[in-house]
Specification:
The chain contains 20 helices and six strands. It has 457 residues and is an alpha+beta fold. It has a four-stranded antiparallel sheet with strand order 3-4-5-6. A two-stranded antiparallel sheet has the order 1-2. β5 and β6 form a beta hairpin. The longest helix has 24 residues. It is extended. The chain starts with 24 loop residues before the first helix and ends with a helix.
């Protein structure tokens, strides 16, 4: 018990006590958590160390800013049962990478169309080998948009003809139509035939793909996710994971609510597409060959529809798993129902099941129950090689990708902003009149009130 306090220090100035004022990771987190509300703000572990020293006079090590992540991951799995978390560390318990799959996402994956979009911008290693190991029967396609940018760069003189014919060739379903469009493309752009055949026709065309790509011909879904995480990516790992957590919570809730409000058999997008196709079948003729086979006359072309095999010679029916115009023409003349010919992936039930899972929030750190072996584990920061110069924050653009250029609000030209603008600006007409003075003609009054004022003067 302390009974008396002596303010005068008797210890020599060169004496350094072994026990210093320290702060645990929980205390540090409580002190700086308000500065991490905005995901756009970059708050590095070094900034945490400086703030704790300046405000509280406490020296903390760099590892304190990293410590506690393993406890966070334990609570993630405890709060969301069925989630998969894999934390890889190197020698010395140094962080390497982290994999997280929420239980809600694992459940919803079974009700999505079997197409995976991967953007290799922020990934390392051989992605093809990794995908083949997990999905040995998966087919590797190419984003139609990125390949188009490569073609624009290689064949600069034929950009207009190239883009028009290339998109039609890549999106067509029918093999006969493909040969006609591909011949036209090769005739307009010499040299493109060898280039595209070297890439592989089955990798960028829908008609030659060995498996269904549905209507997913680009990696737009990955690009959209990258755009959302541009600012969040600069946060520390725990804050970065937490922001992704909150985004998934929000997206699952919004889509689950939207799916619950659907009153039609199919999703709203599919219902709209079916209604648009029904308007095109009025002039088509249907000839019945037998119970399942039909000949559909569409203008000057005939298409064979097999209702038993779910096929049409236009190939839209079997590739998209959605009734094409010719199948809807058969439905109009027969007892078949259009909804029975749609894939289950487009139904309201699958839409709702995709987002049925709930991503539960993590409670406050004061209520955490952490096993001893996890709480005693200290995760160290990774070995990072510091390179000279300013750190790059934006990814390198793809070949042919056009990045937005800034527009100056002073001279209205592109390529710079107002702060760096050096272009001369013309004087305003009123300022020019003031500068020229009597050299400009005097304005004659036209309104009666103006004439009266002039007479009084």
């Amino acid at each position: 018990m302390v009974t008396k306090y002596e303010k005068k220090h008797t210890c020599p100035t060169d004496f350094k006590p072994v026990r210093r004022r320290q702060a645990t990771s929980w205390v540090v987190g409580e002190c700086v958590k308000r500065k991490l509300i905005n995901p756009g703000r970059v708050y590095r572990p070094r900034d945490v160390m400086d703030d704790m020293k300046r405000k509280f006079g406490v020296d903390i090590s760099y590892s304190v800013a990293w410590r506690g992540r393993e406890c966070y991951l334990h609570m993630l799995m405890a709060t969301n049962l069925g989630s998969v978390v894999n934390l890889e560390v190197s020698d010395g318990n140094k962080f390497q990478y982290l994999f997280i799959a929420f239980a809600a996402s694992i459940h919803g994956f079974s009700y999505c169309r079997p197409v995976i979009s991967i953007d290799a911008t922020h990934l390392k290693g051989n992605i093809n080998n990794a995908v083949q190991e997990v999905f040995p029967q998966a087919f590797h396609g190419i984003c139609m948009y990125h390949l188009l940018n490569n073609l624009k760069t290689k064949f600069r003189n034929k950009t207009k003809e190239l883009e028009q014919h290339y998109i039609q060739t890549a999106k067509t379903y029918n093999l006969q139509d493909f040969h006609v469009l591909f011949y036209t493309l090769c005739s307009e752009v010499p040299g493109v035939k060898e280039y595209l055949e070297a890439v592989g026709l089955d990798r960028w065309t829908r008609s030659h793909a060995p498996s269904r790509r549905y209507n997913i011909m680009t990696t737009n879904i990955s690009e959209s996710l990258n755009a959302v995480l541009v600012k969040v990516r600069e946060l520390p790992i725990t804050a970065f994971v937490n922001e992704i957590w909150l985004l998934c919570q929000k997206w699952f809730h919004e889509r689950r609510t939207k799916a619950a409000g659907c009153t039609t058999m199919m999703s709203k997008v599919v219902e709209t597409k079916l209604e648009e196709r029904k308007d095109c079948v009025q002039a088509m003729g249907v000839i019945c060959a037998d119970q399942y086979t039909f000949d559909v006359v569409d203008g000057d072309r005939n298409y064979c529809v097999d209702m038993a095999l779910w096929t049409c010679t236009c190939r839209k029916f079997q590739l998209d798993q959605l009734p094409c115009d010719h199948v809807l023409a058969v439905v109009r003349k027969t007892p078949y129902q259009a909804y029975d010919l749609c894939s289950l992936y487009y139904t309201r039930e699958f839409w709702h099941e995709t987002y049925r899972g709930v991503i539960s929030p993590i409670p406050h750190i004061s209520s955490w129950t952490i096993p001893q072996q996890i709480s005693e584990f200290e995760l160290q920061p990774p070995d990072v090689r510091t390179v000279a110069g300013r750190r790059r924050k934006r990814r390198l653009p793809s070949i042919g990708e056009e990045l937005p250029t800034p527009k100056c609000s002073r001279c209205m030209e592109r390529g710079h902003n107002r702060a760096t603008c050096q272009n001369p600006i013309a004087l305003h007409p009123a300022d020019k009149a003031e500068c020229l003075g009597s050299n400009l003609p005097t304005r004659q009054p036209t309104h009666p009130s103006d004439q009266q004022s002039m007479q009084q003067l």
